[in-house]
Amino acid sequence: MKKELLNLKDKIVVVSKNRSVDEIMEIYNQGFRMFGENRVQELLSKVDYTPSDIQWHLIGHLQRNKVSKVIKLCSLIHSVDSFKLLEKINQESKKQNTITNILLQVNLALEDTKFGFNENEVLETIKKASIFNNILIKGIMVIGPHVNDEQMILNIFNQGYNLYNKCKEIKQHNVCIDTYSAGMSSDYKLALKANSTLLRLGSVMFEKDNL
Fold this sequence. Notes:
Layout: H1 3-6, E1 12-15, H2 21-28, E2 34-37, H3 40-47, E3 55-58, H4 67-70, E4 74-80, H5 83-95, E5 100-106, H6 119-128, E6 135-142, H7 150-168, E7 175-182, H8 188-193, E8 199-201
């Protein structure tokens, strides 16, 4: 792991998909507490074998038929990509007598391979969601485009940050915007330039050198 990452503990969700409990514990013992899984089944297989103070994040696409399984396990769901999913999370959260923290996933690069809202849908979706009492909208999640052009990636991240600030202007009972989740192992430095508050880092966290 790069030494600089140790100073970003409060901004890093360690992506632990396909990682063993031993590998997770190695990172945990360096002071990291936020871990993210892409798949519900893999998350469920790890929760009982890891410390209870880990804050689990669901960062992958979430199917509506699996929502009930993660409601009380996840401190934040990054990947809410449709109003129907938002509705289902609220419904299951009400059943389980809890409030679930969520981010809206935004497909700013308009890539066919990615899920998410279009930019022009986000503000209206938040306002439309005012009918829900068992969710708390914390912000947005953006994935950088799969290109080698760093300026293009930075432009997308800056676009996301501008949208994040527009979201912060919305005042309603189930909105508390404080999270801009952008940046992965390949582009986290660009995301930091664009004021990302939360990085989703996998491979770079498990590198053995530079310590």
